[in-house]
Write a structure and sequence with these properties.
Helices cover about 70% and strands about 0% of the residues. The protein is an all-alpha fold. The protein has a two-stranded antiparallel sheet with strand order 1-2.
Length: about 425
């Protein structure tokens, strides 16, 4: 079997009863239910704590969405009307320049009247800031150079410096989000492992603003909210895993052993053996994710090496997913079913005892109503705690897909009724 065929086998493996979990979505060994529920929450949930990874940040000033939207809309309406007037070929160049300066001056006055914390919402809600920003910064330089009053000159210089800092920061966050969109969700863990320092509290604050700004498009808003909670889950798992230096050191040695094998088939057998013995842990998955991302994102690595790293990483993710308790995998499957009637039928089937079988396309699993209810209760309790938190975790909790929560509560009610 050639390398392409082996890779194809690894990528085609699919289990209909669950979606692939994040490689870093586990807690420490010995906390299986919490480990699994953490993985589940990556699709739209929160976690119980994040203080240990939340960078220091000044208290945010909450600017109501309507205020931010109205302020941005008013400024952009002026931009739009002036821009239309400036498109005529017959219009003198001087008039067009004056019109652009007028637009920039209005935006400068708007920013001068707001705090830097409020700028972030104004920019996130703006659809035209990307095209207007250069003109605003040029106008700030012009006004600073033309100012005769030292106080005014200092004010323009300070405003330009602070606004440029916020602009550059939010531009970086926007580029990070675009990188996630351009990658398949199965590659998010490896990407994050190489860019962890960029995912700060301010990044999640901006992401929250972006989600709110998409209120006119519910579908887009739902996708952004799901992305927010998934990224936060990956950050949480990454930080908890890397905090264990002993585990990371052991994982490095395990990964080095894997690279000494003579074939991919032998590597697959070793990975399965690690999973069977419980040694396939988040630290090893994170180490493999970093290696895959480093190989994939450089032109210095041969394509064959990239393929091997990808094969090992995704094989390990598959094996790790099968280590989840059956009730977690069953719940993840139930949450993908839209019809309440179909969901109830599938749930009844999951409560029917039988042999646990595995095929290339399906896993046949079963659990008890009590175990499934215990898992659902734990997830909902974690969500409710996080939604009331003032940390990044709390922000993500407020963005969780309400449809997922509704389905989970329906499952909870159905089990409680039968019990």
């Amino acid at each position: 079997m050639n390398t392409d065929s082996r890779l194809s086998c690894a990528f085609q493996a699919h289990i209909s009863t669950r979606s692939r979990i994040s490689a870093q979505s586990a807690l420490a060994k010995g906390r299986e239910v919490s480990l699994s529920t953490r993985a589940l929450l990556q699709k739209g949930g929160g976690y119980s704590k994040l203080d240990s990874i939340t960078p220091y940040r000044k208290a945010r000033v909450s600017l109501p969405r309507a205020v931010a939207s109205a302020a941005t809309q008013q400024a952009e309406e002026r931009v739009s009307s002036n821009a239309q007037a400036s498109t005529s070929d017959a219009e003198p160049l001087l008039t067009r320049k004056q019109s652009q300066e007028s637009v920039a001056d209005k935006l400068i006055d708007l920013f001068a009247a707001k705090s830097p914390l409020e700028w972030r919402k104004l920019i996130a809600f703006s659809k035209q800031w990307a095209s207007l920003s250069d003109g605003v910064f040029r106008r700030l330089e012009e006004r600073q150079a033309a100012a005769k009053d030292p106080a005014e000159k200092s004010a323009m210089r300070k405003l330009a410096r602070r606004l440029k800092t916020v602009h550059d920061e939010l531009t970086e966050y926007t580029e990070l989000l675009q990188c996630f969109r351009e990658r398949g969700s199965h590659e998010w863990e490896s990407f994050l492992s190489m860019h962890r320092p960029s995912f700060t509290a301010d990044f999640f604050s901006h992401l929250e603003n972006v989600v709110m700004a998409a209120h006119a498009d519910p579908k887009q808003q739902e996708e952004l909210a799901a992305m927010a909670t998934r990224i936060l889950a990956l950050v949480t798992a990454y930080d908890e895993t890397t905090a264990n230096e002993e585990a990371m050191s052991g994982a490095a040695m395990q990964f080095d052993d894997l690279l000494q094998v003579s074939s991919l088939e032998e590597a697959d057998r070793r990975i399965d053996g690690l999973a069977d013995s419980g040694q396939l842990n988040p630290a090893l998955l994170l180490t493999m994710a970093k290696a895959y991302s480093a190989a994939k994102d450089t032109d210095m690595t041969k394509e064959e090496v990239k393929e091997i790293m990808g094969h090992l990483y995704f094989k390990a993710k598959e094996s790790f997913a099968k280590m989840q308790p059956p009730e977690v995998r069953i719940l993840k499957h139930l949450l993908t079913i839209e019809s309440p009637a179909d969901r109830a039928e599938q749930m009844r089937g999951a409560f029917t005892p039988g042999p646990e079988l595995e095929t290339e396309q399906q896993d046949f699993l079963h659990t008890t109503p009590q175990q499934l209810l215990k898992t659902v209760d734990l997830i909902l309790q974690t969500y409710e705690r996080s939604a009331g938190s003032a940390s990044m975790l709390g922000q993500a909790g407020t963005l969780m897909n309400p449809e997922v929560i509704t389905r989970m509560k329906d499952i909870q009610a159905a089990i409680q009724k039968d019990l």
